[in-house]
From TrEMBL:
It comes from Gossypium mustelinum (Cotton). The chain crosses the membrane at residues 7-28. GO terms for molecular function: catechol oxidase activity; metal ion binding. Residues 334-345 form the Tyrosinase copper-binding domain. Pfam families: PPO1_DWL, PPO1_KFDV, Tyrosinase. It comes from the Eukaryota. InterPro entries: Di-copper_centre_dom_sf, Polyphenol_oxidase_C, Polyphenol_oxidase_cen, Tyrosinase/Hemocyanin, Tyrosinase_Cu-bd. Belongs to the tyrosinase family. This is Tyrosinase copper-binding domain-containing protein. PANTHER family: AUREUSIDIN SYNTHASE-LIKE (PTHR11474:SF128), TYROSINASE FAMILY MEMBER (PTHR11474). Its cofactor is Cu(2+).
Amino acid sequence: MALGPCKWISTITFAFLLLIFTVTLWSLESNQVQYPFAGDLTEMILGKLEGWSLGKHGVITEESKRETKSVGPNMTSCHPSYGRTDLLVDCCPPGFQSPLPFVDFQFPDPQSPLRIRRPVHAVDADYIAKYDKALSIMKSLPHHDPRSFSRQANLHCLFCTGAYDQQNSNAPLSIHRTWFFFPWHRMMIYFHERILGSLIGDETFALPYWAWDIPQGMVIPDMYTNNSSSFYHTMRDVSHLPPQTADLNYVSDTNLSPEDQIDLNLAFMYNQMVSGARKTELFMGCTYKAGKEGYCNGPGTIELAPHNALHTWIGSSLNPGREDMGKFYSAAKDPIFYAHHANIDRLWEVWREAHKQQLDIKDPDWLDSFFYFYDENLRLVRVKVGDVVDTIKLGYSYEQVHRPWLNMRPKPSYPPKLARQMLKTKEKNKLEMLSRTHVSSSELDTHVKVRNHWRKKEKEEEKVIVVHGIEVKGDAYVKFDVYVNLIDQFKISPKFREFAGTFAHIPGGGAGKRKIDLKLGVSELLEDLEADEDESIWVTLLPTTPSCSNVTIGGVRMQYIK
C-alpha cells in the first residue's frame, strides 16, 4: 500500500531521529562523558511519537512506556534560596547556567583496601594528624575548585534549602523530611571522604564517626575543640563543649547529671531505632516522587532526633538560627557535621542489618533517582540512589561498637491496669475532650482521645499515630513530644513507656510552607501498656519549646502500615 505524503514525512522523520539517537548512544559509549538533559531530550522526542517507546536493545515496546517518577536536579536551575525566613542566600556554583559534562557513577575497584570508619573517641594521634592535614589542604583550595571545603559545605546549602528545581519540572527539590535523607547524605560524605584521601595520597583514608549513641561518645570529641587545628569552629554553643553530655532529645539546657543524661539518651535511642522504627517509612521518611504531585513532607525517626536535635544543640546560641549547625544552609561549614552524618549513615546500616535488609526500599523510582557530585578527580558524577545502598560495594565499612540502647526497652510509669482505671475516672469527670478536627498550638498540652475503630492487627502490620497537617510559622527550632495514656505530667520522659516519639523541627529545607505529617509507630508501646486492643487511647501532645505557639496541626488519627 502506498504511503501518502504525510506518512512519508513521518517515516523519514522517525528514521532520522533513530539515526541521531543511535549516533548519540555510540558517542556516549565511546567516551562515557555525558551532558545533563541529553536523555531527557531523547525521551521528549520519542514521547511525541504517541504510543511508542524504546525498550531493550532498541526494540520499541508498550511495556517500556512506564512513566518514571524518579527525582533528579535540574543543575542549570540554581537560584538563591532562604537559609532563614529573613535571609536569602546564594550558594550556586560558578558557571551553573551551562550544562556540564558528567560521567555515571562506577563502584571503586573491589580489590582496593576497604576504608574503615572508626569512632572519633577511639582514633589515635597519628590519625588525627593525617585528617588535620587533609582538611587543611581542602580548606586552602580556591572556591572555584569543587573539592574545596567551601564548595563541599555549599552542597548542603544547595540541595537542602531548595536552590535546585527538579528536572522537567519547576517543582523544588527537597532532601530533608523525605526518603532521600539517608542516601543523599551518604553520597555527600562518600565523595567528601575520597577527596580528603586523595589530597594526602591515602586511598585507605576514612572519615571518623561521632558515636553519640553510646556512652563513650556522648560528648563533643576533643579533636573538634583544639583551636589550633582545622577541626575547630567558632560557631558552636560554648556551654555544650566538653565535658557537657550531649542531649539527643534536645529542647533546652537541663540540670541532669551525666549519668542521668546518658540513661535518658539510651532510652531515647531505643524508641527512635527500635520500637518506633519497625517499618520502612517510619525510619526512612515519606515516599517522595517527581513533580509537584509527588511531593511529601514526612520525616523519619532518626532525622527528627537525634539528627535535628543535635544540629540545634551544637549550633551557637548567639546566632538567630543557631548557626552554623543549627541551619541547613550553614551546617556543613562546621567540620563536626561530617562526623555527625557519618554516625547517621552508620545507624542506617545498623537498622538495615537489624531487619536483615527485609525493609530495604525496592521502588525503582527511589533506586533510579539521582544527584550530582564532584569526585576526587574533578569529574562531575551522576550517582543514583541504587548505587549507594551497599557500603561494601562503595568500599567502606564501620568499626563495630557495643549498642547498649538495644536493651533499654522502657517500662510504663504506672501499672497499665491502674492507668486505665484512672483514665476512665477522668473521662467520667467530664474531662474536656477535643472533638474538633483542628487543634491549635495553645491546646497541644491537652489530651486528645483518639478513636481508632480497632480491628485485629494483621501479621506484619504496625499501628501508627499520625499527627497530620502540622504547620510551622516562624524560623525557630520547634519541638513537641507525643505520649500515649499519660497519667502523671511529672513522669514525662523517654525513659517511660508512655513516650511515643517527638517532633523536632528545623524550619527550612526547601519545603516552603508545606504541611508536615508526623508518623509514630506504637504497636510495641500499646502492647506494653496493655492497650493494643482498646477501642480508644489518649494521645498527649506536649509542647517543649516556646516556638510551639507558632504551630497548628490538622488533627490526630490512627492508621496501619504494612
